[in-house]
Every structure is written in structure tokens, then in C-alpha cells.
Amino acid sequence: MRPIVIVPACTRDFGEHPYHAAQHKYVDAVVLGADCAPMILPSLGESLDLETMLDLCDGIMLTGSASNVHPSYYSEEVLDPSLPQDPARDLTTLPLIREAVKRGIPIIAICRGFQEMNVALGGSLHQAVQTVAGKFDHRENPELGMDEQYGDAHNVTLTPGGCLERMLGQPEIPVNSLHGQGINELAPGMVVEAVAEDGLVEAFSVSTAPGFTLAVQWHPEWRIQHNPYSMKMFGAFGDACRDYQARKLAALREQLRSSA
Prior knowledge:
alpha/beta
């Protein structure tokens, strides 16, 4: 039985109807990269039965999105009202992250998910990285085709001896770049795993988490099978999900034996 990985949905309007939606590439990454079974989680906010969902799952993948985490969660006003928000997703993922980290449920987070994870655990964001002194413009060019938008944009330097450097076996890797926001202050307990050439944090793990955690600002899910670094990252995540599932099933069997 493959481990179940929660993939939180975004809320989007298609025509006149609202939808819970998750892009194919994220679902595919769970299947093709992690060899796990994806379960799309509706963004129900406070109506979500969080305990039931966490009891069911063996891992969580936090996806990227066009929307941004609302800055009120790190005590700021919205800088650019024209940029999309997704309050239902915020209300779903932020408590999900905090509880999953406590339980030691494996988490891999991408782009918006990377930012969500930092905010959920007490960090803050630059709402417009391109306006920060010394930082590059990390946004994609919307006039280019998808292959060019998701092509290698710059290198990131991996922290020597860090979990990502050990996982990939490289001191530096090329990554794509499709984000306007980025890390300002890291949340307590975060460990920097990679930085861009301008010093912007591009990956982190959570030192205080009892389980696997990896958050990256780039998009490793894009054509995952053609990127050996992405396959290694999702492979390690999948292994962590299988380990978590095995421990959970062993604990359940022991509980059943004890109550027999």
C-alpha cells in the first residue's frame, strides 16, 4: 500500500463556478517522484477536519500557486492589491503545517508552500523581492513559453553538510525562478539549506521537526523525470513517507494487540 500524501488545493474560479484545484504537475510529482498516492485536500479553512486528515496521511506536499500568503499573518499590510490572494488556502495550510511538524509527518514544500511554511512557523516575507536593495528580480518573464519560464535561471549554493547537500551530493545546482516574494526573516528553528547568488534563502529545513522537512523556493516538480536533482529530492521525501507509514502501522498493530 503506497503512502498517502496530502496535496492542498487552491481555490479558483473557472467561469462562474468556484473550484478546489491542484495542478497536474504537483500530483504527478507525488506519483512519479515519490512513488506515493496523492490525495487532494480541499481548502476548507476552519471547516476542515484537520485531525482526520492528518491521521489518514503519511506525508504532505505544499504546492506553488499564483496567489500569495496574506501578509497579515506576519503583521504587514498588502503591498500590491492587484496580486491574487487565497484566504481559504491560508486558513487550511497554516494550521496544517504547524500540526504536521509537531507530529513528524514528512513535508516537502514548493514556492508558495515554501513561503507558507516559513509564515506558519513564525517567519516573514519580502512582498516584492525585486524592490529590496541587493536582491535580483526573481520573477519569470510571462512573454516566454513555459519551457523557457521553467528553465534554469540561476544557481543556488547548498549549505555544506546540510541535508540538501547530502541528499544531492553537489555544492551547487541550477534552478528555475518564478517568484516575486521571498524569505525576509526565517522562522525560529529553520536551517538554511540553499541560497541564491544574491543571498536570498532558496531552501530550508526545520531543525526542531521530528520528521523529514524540506522547503524550496524553486519548482522541482516541473518535468520531474528529466531532472535528477528533483528526482532525488522527491525520492528522499517518498522514503520518509514510507518510513512514517511503517511506524504508524506498527504502532496501530501494537495498540490492537494490547487491547485484545
